[in-house]
Design a protein that fits this description.
By secondary structure, this protein is of the alpha/beta class. It contains 5 helices and 9 strands; from the N terminus they run E-E-H-E-E-H-E-E-H-E-H-E-E-H. It has one domain: sialyltransferase cstii, chain A. 24% of the residues lie in helices and 16% in strands.
């Protein structure tokens, strides 16, 4: 079993893009400059993998991460397993070891979601985007851009791919909206703690969704991020 600790400080001083799944990602991923993010470190979270053309090539700067073992029941799961990327999951997935032998595992941080002790092992565990951000900071990335991290619904839609034709949308077990909203509330506290952690590590986090409910980080336009 591989430990996430093998990845620490692997990308010192580099830029990282974290791909969430919020509705704002539909417009961001349609931009002519979206492909340029793959010149940098990219961490795809859960369904974010479907925007990544990682069937070939080297996995060095490509990461996929998840806290939620239910993604194994989504239609994009085969793409996760076959992608040329570094896959990182919570240690609660150990029961599935036989099918994910090449994955990296992380333990949840032992403290509360709103407290980050930089001397503790593990990643923020309240949901997968905080885990991805914690990993980016610990890998040494200095400029970290969040894509599709919105934490709101638009016309009943919560994911970017819900704007796609139905037959092209991934299929799987949805999290009930009430449960999702509870996760968002916990995430808000985690993001504030992670912003403090990033500052201590000399990193800067930007949210590329101006309308995002996540206000712990400076908000900028995606185009501004690409020109930065």
């Amino acid at each position: 079993m591989k430990s996430y600790k093998d990845l620490l400080n692997a990308h010192n001083e580099e830029t990282c893009f974290i791909i969430g799944s919020g509705t704002s990602l539909y417009e961001q991923s349609s931009s002519s400059c979206f492909a340029k993010i793959f010149d940098h470190v990219v961490i795809a979270v859960n369904a974010g993998i479907i925007l990544c053309l990682w069937q070939d090539g080297e996995p060095n700067k490509r990461f996929w991460i998840s806290n939620d073992a239910s993604v194994r029941h989504w239609s994009f799961w085969p793409k996760v397993k076959s992608s040329k990327s570094i896959k990182v999951v919570r240690n609660s997935w150990e029961k599935y070891y036989d099918e994910i032998k090449d994955f990296y595992f992380f333990p949840p941080r032992p403290g509360k979601e709103d407290e980050i002790n930089e001397n503790e092992d593990g990643l923020a565990y309240c949901s997968s985007v905080p885990s991805a951000l914690d990993l980016a900071i610990q890998m040494g990335c200095k400029r970290i851009y969040l894509l599709g991290v919105d934490h709101y619904l638009v016309g009943g839609k919560i994911y970017f791919w819900q704007y796609w034709p139905y037959l092209k949308q991934p299929k799987g077990p949805f999290t009930p909206i009430k449960v999702q909203n509870n996760i968002y509330d916990i995430n808000f506290s985690a993001f504030r703690a992670l912003d403090v952690f990033a500052e201590k590590r000399g990193a800067k986090v930007f949210n590329c969704s101006k309308d995002s409910r996540v206000d712990a980080f400076e908000k900028i336009d995606f185009q501004e991020a690409m020109n930065g």
